[in-house]
Fold each of these.
Amino acid sequence: MPETLSLTAGTLSPADAAKAGAAGKGCKLVAFPTESSYAVGSTGLIKAATRRVLQVKERSTLKPLAVMVHSTEAAKAWVEWTPLAEALAAKFWPGPLLLLLKPTAQGRLLTFPEYPTVAIRVPAHPAARAMIEASGVPWIYTSANKSGKPAKLNASDVLAELGADIDLLIDGGIAPDGDPTLVDASGDKPRVTKVGLISAEAISGALTA
């Protein structure tokens, strides 16, 4: 069974953030709370970690994994930043908004050659940001459930479904139910490709306010 870390005052202690960050950087699988259910992830810089997440998830390799970073400035190293991305990130990051953007030369490390874009996000949950920042690397992630099964909203359900396959579990209590909204921000106008916790109207409104 995985080691479990608990939150203090809503986030990880510096020592636990460092422990979780080191686990992810070291290709271990970490399950953790976000503002849109629990996620499972690991370093985005080692393809073996990506393959392991896909295997545990029982997810097709034809569906690329999304990326989390701890800040907007960190995102700019990995994706080609656009004025549209700047406007949307200023409004909705940290939060459940995935921006679909072209990778930089360095960002190609986060995906496979056949994928022309990367979906990237800064999570609102302070524990997720703390461990990612402590790791010093971007993380690939997906929801912490088997493919086709419901998203997990508490640590005990994650443990029941994925406990045998993950290395570290961060217990953050009950997580909100919902998915991030996915917006293609690589051009001049937003293209909402998946509506989640942020509505298409909110995306449009943020650009006209």
Amino acid sequence: MTTLLRIIKTGFRNIFRNAWLSTAATAIMVVTLLIMTFFAFSTIFVNTQLAQVREKIDLSIFLSDDATQAQIQELQAKLATVENVSSVTLVTKADALKRLESSSEEGQKLAKSASDIGNPLPASFEVKLINIDNISETNSNIRALAEAKIITDTSFDNRDDNRKGVVENVIRISNSVSRIGLVLSIVFLIIALLIIFNTIRMAIFTRREEVEIMKLVGATKWFIRGPFLVEGALYGIFGAIISLLVLIPFSRAVSSFLIEKLGAGPTLEYFVAHFWIIASGMFGVGILIGVISSWFALIRYLKL
């Protein structure tokens, strides 16, 4: 226990021997942790928003005015059995007219005009999907049903309907955010590893005479290496502490904007509810980066 405390004490003292190098290493650690946290927040935020968009997107199946009640019921029953279909809701011609009327002032005018000419709006089925990524395949399966002869069009087939574009954009944005966040996190992670690696390398060169003396008096390899590993871990700990000191007031300052302008309330609630897990993760990542960098530097430059 005494030896361990001495190693920790020496590692802590060594940080202040090279103040400029230690400051640079801690600064890049702070930037790395903030970048990784930012992209974690961005990923959760985008995925939350996309999940809400996905819930609102459905596949509308428009029906012929000549379809009988029996045909409509048969098709509804069959749609419920199609793979990837979560639920099927019938929207009658009267329902469609009411929706148009309640949509906006312009909708009220259009609904009145439609009512005057006998309501040309078609009846339809709103089909909720389990996975909108497979909407094209689901649309094809529905089109292939024997009961589909009363279908005049679908929202996926209709090029004038923007839902297909919305679906494709949702998938594209989700994939892009994940890739960008992963790439930038890896880039800054590598930068942090290199900075701390070089910091420990300089520390080894600076203390080479001290290391030689310790070897001559019979110090163990771990007693010599230990302070350098502790030094690397401390860069991670200090980096995480400073990152949290920056992150907490900053998040409070911009929370109103994020909630009112971007609708990020659920994402902020998630971060608040999991604050200690996130903080622990920042400390864990910081310590891991510091120790790994130090270990590689020791292997490369400290010959015992």
Amino acid sequence: MKLQLALDHPDLTRELEIAARAARYVDFVEAGTPLLIREGIRAVRELRRRYRCPVVADIKVVDAGEPIAELAFAAGAKVVTVLGCASDEVIKRVVKSAKKYDGEVMADSLGVYDLTTRAKELRDLGVDSLCLNRRGMKMRRATQTENLKQLKAQLDELNLPIYLAGGIDLPELIALRKLPLAGVIIGAAITETPSPADAAKEMRRVIDET
């Protein structure tokens, strides 16, 4: 299981300071959508220049495709995100750009209603992974055991490597580590703590003990 650090605050100076402390413990550093909207592709370029781990540009491409993805890949991004509900043509163009730069494409589940069917289509289009974004999911009230069982059943139906995002903290990570997830995307549980380095280090330990 990979650990992706989401830097979602729109202050680049603040996020670079957090990355300086926590990047050594994660597999990917993500330039989050709010950060990219405010700072532009410069955020990707600065993260790539300063830290050795791969950079994810969470652009959530929904229009144009190749020209937008090209900006991020050329700036050093390893992964660019696209909305899974974007048109097939847009996704094809993002995939084309990724191949040019030896990069990868992650689709975001926001706006996708039939996720099982769309995941198959995304794989056929050349998408490398899927972010299961809980912000766009209808969550029913249930125990943690029931939620994990439901998530496991969903993962078994999806034929792409899955990264889970949305409010994951350390106690939940301990429960999630037994599921067949490709990775977890964690923001506030690291970035909003008194010591981002300690929080990331502890999450790294939990994942490595899986």
